[in-house]
Specification:
Helix content: 40-55%
Number of domains: 2
Radius of gyration: 28 Å
Shape: globular
Strand content: 15-25%
Number of helices: 24
Structural class: alpha+beta
């Protein structure tokens, strides 16, 4: 801000704005920047499993790559084998519902190489997190200037506002680092674009208050809103709502100039006398956003808006999903879901204390259902008071400051954020009426919370002017809120990644349990006889050990997940070599039991010079085959390193190569067997060694 530039207040008065002292401004920028970088580094550590491999593959991480490949081929329809049950079958074509923006961003890479197919999600999410954190920092700085005016920032305020950026970043935004999934990537980029749009819109309002007719920030706000809509529609609608509210105020003044002061008081900022250019920018943003989304949706689903949910693969494969659709008239949206969602969002006990490191985790129980309503899914979730208490408290205070700006801000500046906050808050409207509760959806509330929290934190600091002790208390509370968010959301992210969700990186679950046994008490351990099946899944985090450490499992609260094991579960590190022509299925692993056998085989693919893996189950009445895995090169002399699991207790088959690519992953109705052993046969040589969990004895106290 420049010294001596006249400004107008919402009530039509004028004043003189002066900038923060140079050192004060630099300190604030440094504080919010450092906080953003710290959260981003933590995000990097979690999403890469601490291995700093930015291009590792993961289950559900290939959807945008499949979409980008389709676009490179000149079509929207994707390969159905790449998207599975998430795909929508429209005639002979299969589509995904996710917006195109993250797929378009992949085109320059996938156009020149296919080596990174299915490996770009983590890298994309890190870029999205950086964009979101940078604009959260900008949002706090702009809100501070609006609320505090030219008042120089002291050390306590620098700490408090820097910590506020940390608390915003360490909210559910940090939880998204748990999985490099399409679901998390879509949420992250949608929220990043929405926050960016809000930050630039607030910058435009700030300059309008200074009497500057600058369209640059407004253009940026519109561009980011377009990107948000075409990434995640419901989140983008919040960004469009903010633009629409501003546009409505400008349009009223354009049509009825005499109402300029009244509209300014309501909107919270002085409306420009000649708003035509701004109206054009906002109108263009809305038309481009909705028009581009509608065009793509029409090409995919024969409707400009909405989804034919009954055509999604999960609708035919998941009974609970079908029952939820039937109970809600063929839709998963409705106000009947709102009471349950709101209770979960604001309950104060949505976390559990656990004995093992990191000592906090997701609740043991699923969200409660209020009334007679059927949800498609209710995942264990935290709540806003638990995951982001500082953000929630300052957001409430921010709303109060916007309603009564004269008492809480310099020159009633807090009022300037009213329209942006109200519009941004609608980003979270969709999750309140959605028949699906999951912790990740809380992040849809971040755009609105972020604007309100930035205003509230600045207003709270302002009330401590002349009271150093009170300001130190505020700074301490802000730091505590940021650290709490890092602990709770970082811990639940790692727990979800390595104990709850499917598709953890090879060996990461066992490595996590090893770390926990080193840093804290041993988790609850259940002993299972070597020849017995597993009992019903125990509470979240419980460990089961089969026999004399022949296999180790962990419960995610619903099912047992194999951590590691040797021959009892087909746990091997194998080298499979082609030593001759492959003319039919040849066994790689086999387990034989009293009622039949399970075999992992390699067999020729339809493309010459390639092969794939498959499971054959002989139950005594015939041989059943699972779906084959993806093809890989296979010619005489070929060699491939495999990490394998063939586990009849959990009916799971998992095979990955040395680069951690999934060559086979399936849930198959296997028959009980004894130890699984490597086999081999004509044209195939198999060698290797069994795996095992090296810290299993410590679990048993031996």
């Amino acid at each position: 801000m420049e010294r001596g530039i006249p400004s107008s207040t919402p009530d039509g008065g004028s004043g003189t704005e002066t900038p923060d002292l140079p050192g004060s401004a630099r300190g604030l920028r440094a504080a919010v920047g450092i906080a953003a970088v710290v959260v981003w580094v933590l995000f990097v550590g979690i999403i890469t499993y601490g291995r700093l491999d930015l291009v590792h593959p993961e289950t559900f991480g290939n959807f945008y790559d499949a979409q980008a490949r389709a676009l490179l081929d000149g079509r929207l329809a994707v390969d159905p084998n790449q998207v599975g049950f998430e795909g929508f079958r429209m005639g002979e074509a299969t589509h995904i519902y996710q917006g195109l923006v993250p797929a378009l961003a992949r085109l320059p890479v996938l156009a020149v190489t296919d080596r990174l197919d299915g490996r770009l999600t983590a890298l994309s999410m890190l870029a999205g997190a950086a964009l979101a954190l940078a604009h959260l920092a900008l949002l706090v700085l702009v809100a501070r200037r609006l609320v505090r005016g030219p008042t120089p920032a002291g050390r306590g305020e620098v700490v408090a506002l820097g910590a506020t950026v940390g608390a915003l970043g360490a909210s559910t935004l940090l939880f998204l680092s748990a999985k490099a999934w399409v679901y998390h990537e879509a949420l992250l980029w949608g929220v990043a674009f929405a926050v960016a749009s809000a930050a630039h819109l607030l910058r435009w309002i700030e300059r309008t208050r200074l009497g500057r007719a600058e369209l640059g920030p407004l253009v940026w706000a519109g561009a980011f809103a377009v990107l948000a809509v075409n990434t995640r529609f419901s989140t983008g609608l919040g960004a469009l709502a903010s633009l629409a509210l501003i546009g409505a105020a400008l349009l009223v003044v354009r049509i009825a100039p005499g109402r300029r002061e009244g509209v300014g008081r309501l909107a919270g900022f002085p409306v420009p006398e000649r708003p035509t250019q701004a109206i054009v920018v906002l109108l263009l943003a809305g038309v481009v956003a909705l028009g581009s989304y509608a065009a793509v949706n029409l090409a995919r689903f024969d409707t400009p808006f909405g989804l034919p949910i009954e055509r999604q693969g999960v609708a035919s494969s998941d009974p609970e999903f079908r029952e939820a659709l039937a109970a809600n008239g063929g839709s998963l949206f409705g106000l009947r879901y709102s009471p349950s969602v709101l209770v979960q969002l604001f309950r104060p006990d949505a976390v559990r204390l656990r004995g093992e490191f990191p000592f906090v985790g997701l609740p043991r129980s699923r969200p409660v259902v209020v009334g007679d309503v059927r949800f498609a899914e209710r995942d264990r979730s935290t709540s806003l008071p638990v995951s982001a208490p500082w953000v929630l408290a300052t957001a409430v205070l921010g709303v109060i400051a916007m309603v009564r700006p004269a008492r809480w801000s310099h020159g009633s500046g807090a009022a300037a954020a009213r329209t942006v906050t109200l519009g941004a808050a609608t980003s979270g409207a969709g999750i309140v009426v959605l028949g699906y509760i999951a912790n990740r959806y809380q992040v849809d509330l971040l755009p609105g919370l972020a604007v309100a929290s930035a205003v509230g934190a600045a207003a709270l600091v302002g009330r401590t002017d002349g009271a150093p002790r009170a300001r130190r208390v505020v700074a301490a509370l802000a730091v505590a809120g940021a650290l709490w968010g890092c602990w709770v959301n970082g811990s639940t992210a790692v727990e979800y990644q390595r104990e709850v969700a499917a598709g953890a990186w090879d060996g990461s679950r066992a490595a996590w349990l090893s770390l926990q046994t080193r840093l804290g008490p041993v988790p609850d351990v259940l002993r299972v006889p070597a020849v017995s099946p597993l009992p019903a899944a125990g509470p979240l985090g419980q460990v089961a050990v089969v026999g004399d450490c022949e296999a180790v499992y962990r419960s995610n609260g619903d099912i047992w997940i194999l951590l590691d094991g040797g021959p009892a579960v087909g746990g091997y590190q194998l080298t499979v070599r082609s030593v001759g022509e492959l003319t039919g299925p040849v066994g790689v692993l086999e387990g034989v039991g009293p009622t039949g056998s399970n075999r992992l085989v390699v067999e020729p693919d339809v493309v010459p010079g390639t092969a794939h893996l498959q499971v054959e189950v002989d139950d005594g009445t015939g041989v059943r085959k699972a779906f084959p895995g993806p093809a890989f090169p296979w010619t005489p002399g070929s060699e491939i390193e495999l990490s394998t699991e063939l586990d009849w207790r959990t009916d799971t088959v998992e095979v990955r190569d040395a680069a951690d690519r999934r060559l086979l992953g399936a849930t198959v109705d296997l028959v009980p067997t004894g130890p699984v052993t490597p086999t081999g046969g004509p044209g195939v040589q198999v060698t290797g060694s069994p795996r095992g969990f090296d810290r299993c004895p410590s679990l048993l106290g031996t």
